[in-house]
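Hi L.,

You mentioned the student needs an example of a multi-chain input paired with its predicted structure. This one should do, with 322 residues in total across all chains.
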Amino acid sequence: MRKFREKQLKFLARESDARNLTLRESTRLEKLTSEMPDLGELMNFEAMSLNLLRETAVEPQLDSSFNARVIRLWRVDQQKNGLKYWMPAACGAFVAILALLSIMRLMTTSTPETWKNHKSEARRVDTSNLILIDQDSALRAK
Amino acid sequence: MSYGIERPQDDLVWIERCRAGDETALNYLITRHRARLIRVAANILRDAHEAEDVAQEAFIRGFRELKNLRDDRAFAGYLYRIAVRICMDRLRSRKPSQAEFDAGTSDKGNQVENRVVIQKLLAELTPELRATLVLREIEQFSYEEVAEAMKVPVGTVRSRLHTARERFRELWLSAMSEPQ
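Structure written out for the whole complex:
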């Protein structure tokens, strides 16, 4: 029986944090608290935590330049999203692409020309009829 | 002091003007919502300076998305949702050992001690539980408003709130039973 009343007291104490209790519930809570003062005290102590949370709420000081700051940032944000902001970057990208394309074009047109030029190629030559000049024997004959 | 999300009717006119790029309207909307928004962020983060940054970011994002807003009456709720999301992201990125105490307010003695205790307890909660608890207990948002601000169903808010209160009480009892 005591356990049931303890459970009921805990339930009502917690419900009182969450909502306004009905008259019947409040009366019951008061009665149970007076019957079990030790548990009632513990419940009150627990309830203190939430009261303290409410009491220690932060009340920040308002900065007078807050509005101006937000509006300035908003202007920057608008510019970022607008065409005006992206125009220089778009122009730069266009020029870079143009330069890249022209370099690629130059490379592709010049490469076949070098392949056609056989002057620089190594070739097999028949050397059987070539007269070898032996410098030492030529000097001796003189 | 007002509680819950304020939804002034004449906001609608100003929102319309804001869409057209009217800076007077921007100024009006910022003035209307800034105090509350900074307060909400400050209580979730427990840092008044960081709260200003959050509010600033929330306003910029809110104004940027104004063109896509279907219902102008939802503007205030939308602002809070952005701010809460930013706060939760910041809480997630915080290191566990990071000191959170902000002594920027004019409290003395016992009040400061209480603040430190509460901040330590809040730091033990997950960002979701912490934000839910703060919005309901300190800012006194209704369940529906908390659900709107956190973009979760009302049932989830109820269960999170129950868990948050239980956890907060447990932490409180263990903190108080520890020798000072």
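You could point out the following to them. Chain B touches chain A through 44 residues (CB under 8 Å). Chain B has a mean pLDDT of 84.

Best wishes,
N.
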